[in-house]
Design goal:
It contains 5 helices and 9 strands; from the N terminus they run βαβαβααβββαβββ. The chain is of the alpha+beta class and about 200 residues long.
Length: about 200
């Protein structure tokens, strides 16, 4: 799949409803499942969509919150994405969405990078036990999603490191298939409505 690039000019929110006590499914697990649905769509069009966690962006919370914010270059792409996922039972029964919104051209901040945080498998850390231990300790306060690989059926934690970007600006970005920034293609997103 060819990687695209976009300028994140539009966004909409997916808010969890019927989570926790109402559904019997803890909110972080439910948001993880919603992200898995989005990832299935993003993977077909890598680079067109980016995600933000507005509840965790500026709070320093280790929980991802109850909102997944999806960015794209234009409203039409967000409408197409919504049309592609809205009938999935997790989206239909457990979320509400906002209408697409435009990032104001005068938006000055804050901007936050949502970077995928990797630890690496234990077997790759032959003589660097302290490096792995240090990465595990660094990951402890970070928000994460409990994900499941379709190819191997194994579970893993998708850890997200929110980083305030004092020099953030709207520019072309190239998110991974989860909609996140990675070390080789870092970017930040406008936290419209967050302060």
């Amino acid at each position: 799949m060819e990687r695209g690039a976009m300028i994140p000019r539009c966004w909409f929110d997916l808010h969890l409803v019927n989570s926790g006590d109402a559904s019997g499914v803890p909110q972080p697990i439910l948001l993880s499942k919603v992200l898995m649905v989005c990832h299935g769509y993003f993977a077909k069009q890598v680079g067109k969509y980016a995600i933000a966690l507005p509840d965790a962006a500026l709070s320093g919370s280790p929980l991802p919150g109850s909102t997944l914010r999806v960015f794209s270059a234009n409203e039409q792409e967000l409408i197409e994405m919504w049309s592609g996922i809205r009938e999935h039972y997790l989206i239909r029964d457990y979320t509400t969405s906002t209408m697409p919104n435009k990032v104001p051209s005068s938006f000055a901040g804050p901007y936050v990078e949502f970077r995928r945080f990797r630890i690496g498998p234990a077997k790759s850390d032959r003589n660097q036990t302290s490096l792995r231990e240090r990465r595990l300790e660094q990951a402890r306060p970070l928000p994460y999603f409990q994900m499941r690989s379709k190819s191997s059926s194994s579970y893993f934690r998708l850890i997200v490191e929110p980083r305030i970007d004092k020099d953030g600006a709207l520019r072309a970005i190239s998110p991974d298939s989860y909609g996140l920034s990675v070390a080789t293609r870092s970017f930040s997103l406008p936290m419209v409505g967050c302060s």
